[in-house]
Amino acid sequence: MQKIYIILTHTGTILSRIIKLWTKDEFSHVSIALDSDLEQMYSFGRLHPYNPLWAGFVQEGINRGTFKRFKNTEALIYSLDITQEQYILIRNEIRRIEEHKKEYRFNIIGLLAVGFHKKIHPKQSFYCAEFVKHILEIGEVKTQLPAIVKPEDFKNLKNYIVIYKGKLRKYNKEKKREYIVRYIEMCTKKKKEIV
Questions:
Q1: Do 119 and 125 form a contact (C-beta atoms < 8 A)?
Q2: What is the CATH topology of the domain spanning 2-170?
Q3: Which of 30, 48, 91, 116 is the residue whose CA sits 20 to 30 A from 63?
Q4: Residue 184: enclosing H or E segment and its boundaries?
Q5: Are the CB atoms for 27 and 19 separated by under 8 Å?
Q6: Phi/psi at 75 (nearest 5 deg)?
C-alpha cells in the first residue's frame, strides 16, 4: 500500500479571502502530495507569491513560495491508502502535466463560474480543485466529487483520514512530536509487558 495526501489550505491572501467570502467555505485551495513531509505538493495556483494573476501548475512546499510568504496559512491534511498501481498512475500523471506545464493554463474563468454554479473547463486548464480531482480520477481513486468542484468538497471524501489541522508551517513539528509521543508510549508499554 501507498499513501497520498490531500492538503486543504487558506492563506489569507486577498484572492483567497475573496474566494472564502464568495463560497462561505473554510478553505480556498487544495493540493495533493505523495510524501508525508509534504516536500512536494502539486496544484494549480499562483506561480509567484506576489502575483495572484500569474498562475498555472505549481510545486508547492511548506517553506517556499506562497506558503512561505503567508506564514499563517491554515491547513487540513488528509491521508489515503491506495494501491501501488493507483500510486503509479497518479505519479505518472503529475509528472506528465509537469513536463508539459507550459501547455497548461490556470482556469480563472472556471474558478469564477463556480460561484454561479456553472462549469467552464477550457481544454488543458485547471483551477486547484479541478486538478486534484483530475489526478484522483486518473489514479482510479473513487471520490464521488461533484462536477463543479471546490476545495471544501474534498472534506467529504470517504476513507480519508484527517492527520493534521492547524498552521501549515507547524505540520512537520507536530508530526515529529506525535511520533515521539507514540514511541515513548510504545516503549513504556513494552517495559510494562516485560515486568
A1: no
A2: endopeptidase fold (from Nostoc punctiforme) (3.90.1720)
A3: 91
A4: helix 171-194
A5: no
A6: -140, 150
| Amino acid in the structure at residue 12 | G
**Among residues 164, 161, 167, which one has the least CA distance to residue 79?**
161
Q: What phi and psi, each to the nearest 5 degrees, are found at residue 150?
A: -125, 160
The predicted structure's pLDDT at residue 89 = 98
The DSSP line for 57-77 is: EEEEBTTBHHHHH-TT-EEEE
H helix intervals, 27-170: 65-69, 84-99, 108-114, 128-138
- For the chain, the distance separating the N- and C-terminal CA atoms, rounded to the nearest angstrom, is 36
The single-letter DSSP state of residue 102 is G
Residue pointed to by grid coordinates 515486568? 195
Joined together, the cell numbers standing for residue 108 give 480563472
Rounded to an integer, the average pLDDT of 54-74 is 91
Cell of 150: 471546490
